[in-house]
Amino acid sequence: MTGSKDQAISGEASETEVAEELHGETSNKAKEKAHKKEGLRERLKAAEAKAEANYERLQRVTADFENYKKRSEREMNEFRKFANKSLIKEILPIVDNLERALATEHEKNEDAFKGIREGVEMTLKGLMDSLERFGVVRMETLGKPFDPNFHQAVSQEESEKHPENTVLHELQKGYMLRDRLVRPPMVVVSKRPDAKAEVKPERVGDKSETKITVH
């Protein structure tokens, strides 16, 4: 009987050991599985963070490229608007000569002069129409305040009828290419009868201009 009991006890001990061993293996596998799962979570978070950073970088690059495109378009439009400025400056003296021809009076052979005048008027009108199509605008200065940013003053004239620093005469017309000065008008500016003028040459646009200081 004693031998049977010992065998029974020994069998139970063996089963317990096997059960504990199996439990240990299961626990280790569970830990290993949990560890792997945690590693996958961390890798997923890192991948998501990297993807978000790349997306933000892509958005910045896209925004920079769009800004570059808009800036390039503005610069190209600006170039197209004012590309003919040099050509226009060369043409304006021709306009001046035509206007002087029209201002000349001829007492002799009025009929011949009338025909010439009509031809010059038509030429001048066609030329001015062409310039206007390119955005050239003639400046209106008579009776307006003198502005050293746009006018070239060549002298002063005493006047009691006009406010001080008013444009009295226009010796040469000024022109704008859209909103940019091509050539400043040469003007005579009013001053008080008792005022002393100090004339100083300065720069306006591409030419020197005379700034007038009244004391």
What would you note in describing this structure?
With 215 residues, this protein is α+β, with helices and mostly antiparallel strands. The chain has three domains: 1-83; 85-134; 138-214, Head domain of nucleotide exchange factor GrpE (Nucleotide Exchange Factor Grpe, Chain A, domain 2, Roll). The protein is built from three helices and eight strands, in the order αααββββββββ. The chain has helices at residues 2-82, 85-103, 110-133, and strands at 136-138, 152-158, 167-172, 175-177, 180-183, 186-191, 197-204, 207-214. Strands 1-4-5 form a three-stranded antiparallel beta sheet. The chain is rod-shaped and about 145 Å long.
Net shape? rod-shaped
Rg is 46 Å
- Uncertain parts: none
Largest sheet, strands/sense/barrel: 3 strands, antiparallel
User: Average pLDDT, to the nearest integer?
Assistant: 77
Q: Spell the H/E element sequence.
A: HHHEEEEEEEE
Number of strands: 8
Structural class: alpha+beta
Bin the strand percentage: 15-25%
| Tally of discrete structural domains | 3
The order of strands across the largest sheet is: 1-4-5
Q: How many helices in DSSP terms?
A: 3
First and last CA, distance: 142 Å
Helix content: 55-70%
